[in-house]
Design a protein that fits this description.
The protein is α/β, with parallel strands linked by helices. Helix content is 42%, strand content 15%. It folds into two domains: 7-256, 3-Layer(aba) Sandwich (Aspartate Aminotransferase, domain 2); 267-390, Alpha-Beta Complex (Aspartate Aminotransferase, domain 1).
Length: 400
């Protein structure tokens, strides 16, 4: 868990060689060891090598994000959020979170989730005129509904989250504020997005996505919330932790503390803004008019092609996006009006702002081809994509 690798490809030193180090840690024999409990308080013997690994991950998480407490055992983001409910709420309590169609997450109280079935979920949205979170609505709903928990953050929020404003609202109604930063954790760690630590009671995050770690999760908090959170994770929800994932989290946190990672995080944002500007120049309708972080949400209504049709066509063209609802979407979630795109993967492969106009052009041509069913155009785009990406191999793949 102390691996220290150099740059991934010659001539490109923004991104550390963290992806392969994470894969190596994930593939170790640590996955063979069962370790219910916490360091120094296990239910099995033979933890002489496991306890130091988990302790190292905990200390690195606390140092990187500046928190008093960290739990690195949650299996993934959804179980981590479930632990928050178990720690601070009772079945039937009210939780206030961003509505799923507006950019929120299933576990923020949405009806089809266990969190919406076992708890009373109330959703807030964005302003129709700006596409930004409607903090007036958040405050009004909080005063009216008196939620036990307030979630801020989501899965399709292209703008900076005002953690301080959410904290003020939470204090007013005596609610626990949870900042779900699963999508922006790497940007927070790299100083490319404001941190929720001074404002939120609990921070929930996955360790993959922009943090470039393994598929796991963490719960960060003030020391006063440590015991209920730890008890909620184990024994409340889980048995033994995935020790190989814990080791990989420790590696990822080490990489994220390096100066090169800050360069990566800021490059992700610069690329996203450059891509958004190039898309706007081509007449695309972007939710909120652009982006402050790593993602861009595109409303394809004016283009006359559904998001799912566009996403599948772009996949055939060698460009992977996902179909996504947009605020006030008249279409169903499985067949929505938009697509969600982002720049972390492009940035990890070494693309810079100078490449974003070409990416926007591919998207423009790909969406047009999706509307007309022009497979020849999609094939031509795929060839151009392959030519550029051949010079920028994916991190973690063996080099020739």
């Amino acid at each position: 868990a102390r691996a220290d690798y150099g740059p991934y490809t010659p001539g490109f030193d923004i991104v550390p060689y963290g992806d392969l180090a994470v894969l190596e840690a994930t593939g170790t024999v640590l996955q063979n060891k069962y370790s219910e409990g916490y360091p120094g308080r296990r239910y099995y013997e033979g933890q002489q090598n496991i306890d130091p690994v988990e302790t190292l991950a905990i200390e690195r998480a606390k140092a990187l994000f500046g928190t008093e407490h960290a739990n690195v055992q949650p299996y993934s983001g959804s179980p981590a959020n479930l632990a928050v409910y178990l720690a601070f709420a009772e079945p039937g309590d009210t939780v206030l979170g961003m509505s799923l169609p507006m950019g929120g997450h299933l576990t923020h109280g949405w009806g089809v989730s266990a969190t919406g079935r076992w708890f009373r979920g109330v959703g807030y949205g964005v302003r129709p005129d700006t596409g930004l979170i409607d903090l007036d609505e958040v405050r009004d709903l909080a005063r009216k509904e008196r939620p036990r928990i307030i979630f801020c953050g989501g899965t399709a929020v292209p703008r900076t989250i005002d953690f301080a404003a959410f904290a003020e609202i939470a204090r007013e109604v005596d609610a626990v504020l949870v900042a779900d930063i699963a999508h922006i954790a790497g940007l927070v760690a790299g100083g490319a997005h404001p941190s929720p630590v001074p404002h939120a009671d609990v921070i929930s995050t996955t360790t993959h996505k922009t943090l470039r770690g393994p598929r796991g999760a963490m719960l960060l908090s003030r020391a006063t919330h440590a015991k209920p959170l730890d008890r909620a994770v184990f024994p409340g929800l889980q048995g033994g932790p995935h020790n190989h994932t814990t080791a990989a989290i420790a590696v990822a946190l080490h990489e994220a503390a390096r100066p090169a990672f800050r360069d990566y995080a800021h490059a992700v944002v610069a690329n996203a803004r450059a891509l958004a500007e190039a898309l706007l120049a081509r007449g695309f309708d972007l939710v909120s008019g652009g982006t402050d972080n790593h993602l861009v949400l595109i409303d394809l209504t004016a283009r006359g092609v559904p998001g799912k049709v566009a996403a599948k066509a772009l996949d055939r063209a060698g460009i992977v996006v996902n179909h996504n609802t947009v605020p006030f979407d008249p279409r169903k979630p499985f067949d929505p009006s938009g697509i969600r795109i982002g720049t972390p993967s492009l940035t990890s492969r070494g693309l810079g702002t100078e490449h974003m106009p070409a990416v926007a052009d591919w998207l423009d041509r790909g969406v047009a081809a999706a509307r007309t069913g022009d497979e020849d155009a999609l094939a031509a785009i795929r060839a151009e994509v392959a030519e550029l990406m051949a010079a920028h191999p994916a991190p973690g793949l063996p080099l020739d």
